[in-house]
Protein 1
Amino acid sequence: MDGELLMDLDNDVHDEGNGFDLPLELIPSSFNEVESTKNLEVNADYIDYAKLENEYQNPALSYRLLHMFEVCVNRRPEIAKVINRIHSKNSIDVEFYRTFATALEKHKNADPSKSWPTIDTAWIQTTEDEVQAMTERESANLKKAQDEGIKV
């Protein structure tokens, strides 16, 4: 068998930075530009929320739903209700909820005829208080452990 037909595993010709790369002059300037999704709008026929809830846990689920809320024009009120339900049950991320509330108000003002959910401001205050208490409790536990000489 001819040695030229065998592949040389140590030959790194196909690795990054090889001599076969295209010169930058041949690559169009728009090649590396990322298309913006800010103005992306889609119409979704059906969204399987149960499947999403099984596949994703918070915070990934909340952020996935927030993106869907922004782009799925025909399902915005429905998605907003799901975010409201899921996030208030499964999360303590107040900043996310505020971001969602801002986006929701924007869409409510743009189309007030639809059935939009209401933002739970009591949840925001209660959750902030719980997080503050949890932070203080854990800080006290840490300080106590350090005072007792336990390495943390």
Protein 2
Amino acid sequence: MRRMLDMEDLPIGARVRTPTGRVGTVVKHRGAESKRDHFQRVVVFVGPRPRDTVALQPHLLERVDKCPPEPGGERRIDR
């Protein structure tokens, strides 16, 4: 069984896998930003365009830093 991750387990720059299977890089941490939304979120860059980001709760992500680096730089995304 997978251990639930917290924001401290996903530092900026960490490689993660989203629930849909896309691999991306953590670019920002966001706290609870409204009175109705008390969840912390991790912003993940998942695409070739600058605005291809998703904000997900940390327990939905899986860290994949242990994978070997991809040729062509770190901005390349698995599909």
Protein 3
Amino acid sequence: MWRIIIADDQKSFRIGLRKALEVGSAGIIIVDVSGASELINHLRSPLKTDLVIVGSRLLPAGDPTYLGALKRAAGAARLLLVVPHASADLFQDALSLGFHGLIIRRQRHEEMIEAIRTTLDGRLYAPNAILSVKPPEAASAMRQPERGRSV
């Protein structure tokens, strides 16, 4: 049985994701919280947490120690960050901060469930919006031949 904490300041997001999880998966305990300190308190519970889904707005910008406290309290739990939009750079930043992937707030619930399953399986998750961005085409290594001038 998995225990998942959904921590976000938007009640509608928490409710929507909870409903999608309840329909799409059996054997899941879901806890939803709306504040940063409430999240830490739930993580300190004696119940093992497997996954924490954290809204980026819950990470206090003015408190550089919060992220460390969150990771210590989370222990072995996997972490997904909920963001309003995503990019490859933001994905790399999230990984370097200890998150295991990103969920974009506007993603379809099916994609969010895929993110959750992927993360619970021990893998990193990158949203399709990041993966579908094509890199600019490399310039041809060969220079076009110059045309000679006739005199």
